[in-house]
Amino acid sequence: MVTLPALVGELAGFVDLAGAQINTDDLFGAQAIVRGFTVDNLASLREMIELLMGAYHFDAFTSEGVVKLILRAYPTSVSVSIDDFVISNDNPGGYALTRARETELPALAKVSYFDETNDYQVASVDAVKQTGQSKNTISVSYPIVIPESQARSIPQIQIMQAWTARERGNIALPPSKLAIDPGDVLDVSIKGRAMSLRVDSFDVGE
Question: How far apart are CA 54 and CA 17, in angstroms?
Answer without folding.
Answer: 22
